[in-house]
Amino acid sequence: MELEQVTHVDNVRLSDDGRAVRILDQSLLPNETVYLELSTPEALYEAIASLRVRGAPAIGIFAAYALYVLALQSEAPHYAPFLAECQRHRDYLNASRPTAVNLRHALDRMVAVAAAMPCMDVPSIQAAMKEAALAIHREDIAMCRAISEYGLSLVKAGDGILTHCNAGPLATSRYGTGLGPLFLAKERGIILHAWCDETRPLLQGARLTTYELQRAGVDCTLICDNMASLVMKEGKINACFVGCDRVARNGDTANKIGTSGVAILAKHYGIPFYVLGPSSTIDFSCPDGDHIPIEQRSGAEIKETFFAAPSALPEVKCYNPAFDVTDHSLITAIVTEKGICYPPFDESFARLFGPCWKEATP
Ligand code: MRU
Predict the structure, then answer these.
(1) Distance of alpha carbon 57 from alpha carbon 69, whole angstroms
(2) Cβ of 165 below 6 Å from ligand 1
(3) Which residue of 143, 312, 313, 349 has the fewest C-beta atoms within 10 A of its own C-beta?
(4) Residue 245 among the catalytic residues
(5) How far is the CA of 189 from the centre of ligand 1 (A)?
(6) How confident is the model at residue 177 (pLDDT cuts 50, 70, 90)?
(7) Which ligand 1 atom is at minimum distance from the Cα of 56?
(8) For residues 118 and 158, what is the distance between their CA atoms, to the nearest angstrom?
């Protein structure tokens, strides 16, 4: 399988007729390759909520196309009712998943495009929204590439990299963030070894990360989440690369459940722990991790989803937070498209993202 078939495909895009959003259904991977074309509010919402499309940047790109596709169906005669409809669709889609801030960023940006055109007719606003959605996608491609370059500069040939969840092309666009340095290294003939946490309960590491790395010819080994400590102790890991769903102003980082445990282990073994993510994942209005909403999901994901028969009695209670927050004190650096931020993160963010930082300062 060619590397480019992994790193140069659009897993989220507009359909050929431009009236639906086309996605590769991630919930069925790696066993089935099914593409969906979605165009109703309910189907678009369901695709995000049930993780057919997932990963913070990919959710943002999808939401932008979704709002455009819905705007295209509008029968509103002019600006005011058209804008009200866009705002309704934004609020509906925004409720599909609470933690990844890219969803809100993309939806707000799309509505802002419409809101800024009060004197224009509906078709002109729709055209501007299409351009905005395509721009969000293009920008993510460029950001992922830049993040991958910066990430690759942090490791050397022969290194072992621990990954958690999936922060590859499926979760973003093209190279990915957390996995980007591994694909770029492969492209340049640099050998890196990936150790991939399976990532209970929805197995994004097993189902998606090893699927992407294996197909691209990157050396990868799958481990259960509870093996990370051992492989670190055995000296197999030189760095941890993870993605992010929301980064607060002080560097506290929400990512897939289990990430904070990996960071604690890395600190214990003296291994650098890197968070890789685009600026669209930094929430400059969020002071710290205590203010990040954590999504709670069904206990069926723990007991049933990936088992031939239920793994526990039906009456057993489950607690299924989908994300946790890694304290900024455990993070060696946050790798963005503009550069590598080292602690103290509030100061390095302010240096790199001056205007956004100032606008959001309370
Ligand atoms: O619940 P998911 O699969 O959407 O969670 C995804 C993650 O936690 C990813 O690590 C994160 O979105 C970064 S993707 C580049």
Answers:
(1) 19
(2) yes
(3) 313
(4) yes
(5) 28
(6) very high
(7) 12
(8) 57
User: How many other β-carbons are positioned within 10 Å of the β-carbon of residue 279?
Assistant: 18
Residue 362 has pLDDT above 60, yes or no: no
For residue 303, give the H/E element and its range.
helix 300-303
Between strands 239-242 and 160-163, the pairing is: parallel
User: Which of 162, 255, 298 has most ligand 1 atoms within 8 Å of its beta carbon, as the pocket-test mutant?
Assistant: 255
The alpha carbon of 73 and the centre of ligand 1 are apart by a number of angstroms equal to 30
Give the separation between CA 206 and CA 212, rounded to whole angstroms: 10
How many CB atoms lie under 10 A from the CB of residue 235? Answer: 10
Token pair 């509030």 is at which residue? Answer: 346
Q: Does ligand 1 lie within 6 Å of residue 11's CB atom?
A: no
Indicate the average pLDDT of the chain. 97
State CA 70 to chain mean position distance.
Answer: 23
pLDDT at residue 1 tops 70: no
Question: Ligand 1 in contact with 201 (CB < 6 A)?
Answer: no
SS3 22: strand
242-to-195, 233, 291 alpha-carbon distances in Å = 12, 19, 21
Residue 256: its H or E element:
strand 253-256
Tens digit of pLDDT for each residue in 207-255? 999 999 999 999 999 999 999 999 999 999 999 999 999 999 999 999 9
Give the residue, by CA position, lying nearest to ligand 1 atom 10: 243
Question: Hey, what's the torsion of the CAs at 121, 122, 123, 125, to 10 degrees?
Answer: 90
Q: 73 and 82 in contact (C-beta within 8 Å)?
A: no
Atom 6 of ligand 1: nearest residue by CA position = 55
Answer yes or no: is the C-beta of 98 below 6 A from any ligand 1 atom: no
Distance 27 CA to ligand 1 centre (A): 13
Number of other residues whose CB lies within 10 A of the CB of residue 116: 10
pTM: 0.97
* Active-site annotation holder among 197, 245, 252, 324: 245
